[in-house]
Amino acid sequence: MPDEAKQAFNSMQESLYLKYRYGSLNYHLIQKFIVQTGRKTSLKNIWRSGIYFPRFSGNHAIVHANHADDSINIRVQGPQANYLMSAIRYEFKNISQRGNVEVLVSSDGVHYASHKDIKRQISLFKDWAQVDIDRLLVWDVDGRARIEVKKLIWALELVPEEQVSFSEIPDVVQNPKKEKLVFISYAKENLKVVEKLDKLLGPYKSENKLKIWYDRDIDQRKSFDDQIREKLYNADLFIAIISSDYLDSNKEYIRKEEEPRIIDRHKKEAIPVFPLLIEKECMWKASTFSNHDVNFPNKEKVYDLNSGIKEFIELVVEELEKTEIQ
Question: Which of 45, 87, 158, 275 is the most exposed place for a label (fewest CB within 10 A)?
């Protein structure tokens, strides 16, 4: 398994797990899958017994053969993991070898149960609270596995496998990434600062070097949470507007959704984070970002909407230009 795939495998959280277990696994099965789907990723993400699909709209997937137990193992993670899982299942449905195959699911990648048995249990009851699947899984002491397996089965059943295929996913070579995505995390009281940043970065946007994203770009017809999470998973750089409003404990969405994901991607993927301090009185040392090794430029300096913010922009652009725009 390539290093990038190993790193992704070890860092994936809130994953969906699926295992196809055969009486005797034919090695050519995984090879057929790789041939049919390989154009959806780069060559560095393909190895003899598996394939890694990184960042499909914020979703990741690893598919590999385990000949020790004659199985194909699938692990998918992301805000729309169920769609990518369905696409993978669709491909295997078309190429699967003859003979008995057991479909297993798991909430943690360790304890597996029969997908068929769980579906049968679910069909007998109208309410999740009535579903007796304790006998099917070894539960964590805190009951977390129970919650996750329900979420898993719901996701697997949400989109029927025949409705999604890999043909709907763009080929890597045909759709290269042309610009870097900059996600801005901020409190609504600081919208003017965000708009100023957006304007100053205008020349770089016009050259297709980067794209600025904040909740102004939310599509009201789609799920707010899904859109935010997708951009958090896809962002190449984060900017956080640090102010007393941003640090307000009542800003629960920032505390619980945005900051943890930003820090997680910074720690695991080295995604740059640039906090922008805009208030002298702000208790920035109490912020989440001050406790991590992020790109806190001139920690004691407060940037304003005039000349100071331009200096900050230069630091951000310098970081973005360290690597080639894909």
Answer: 158
SS (H, E, C) the chain: CCHHHHHHHHHCCCCEEEEEEECCCCCHHHHHHHHHHHHHCCHHHEECCEEEEEEECCEEEEEEEECCCCEEEEEEECCCHHHHHHHHHHHHHHHCCCCCEEEEEECCCCCEEEHHHHHHHHHCCCCHHHCCCHHHCCCCCCCHHHHHHHHHHHHHHHCCHHHCCHHHCCCCCCCCCCCEEEEEECCHHHHHHHHHHHHHCHHHHHCCCEEEECHHHCCCCCCHHHHHHHHHHHCCEEEEEECCCCCCCCCHHHHHHHHHHHHHHHHHHCCCEEEEECCCCCCHHHCHHHHCCCCCCCCCCCCCCCHHHHHHHHHHHHHHCCCCCC
CB 149 within 8 A of CB 113: yes
For residue 16, give every residue at least 6 positions away whose Cβ sits within 8 Å of its Cβ, in sequence order, or none: 75, 76, 77, 81, 82, 85, 152, 155, 156
The whole-number pLDDT of residue 72 equals 94
The one-letter amino acid at 167: S
Q: Which of 87, 77, 73 is nearest to 25 (CA)?
A: 73
pLDDT digit string, tens, across residues 183-231 = 999 999 999 889 988 888 888 776 767 889 998 888 888 888 888 888 8
Q: Which residues contact 199 (CB under 8 A, 6 or more apart)?
A: none
- Determine the Cα–Cα distance for residues 27 and 17; give it in Å rounded to an integer: 21
The pTM (predicted TM-score) of the whole model is 0.51
pLDDT in tens, 107-118: 778 888 888 887
pLDDT digits (tens, 9 = 90+) for 112-145: 888 888 777 767 665 656 666 666 666 665 566 6
Angle at which helix 115-123 crosses helix 144-158, to 10 degrees, equals 90
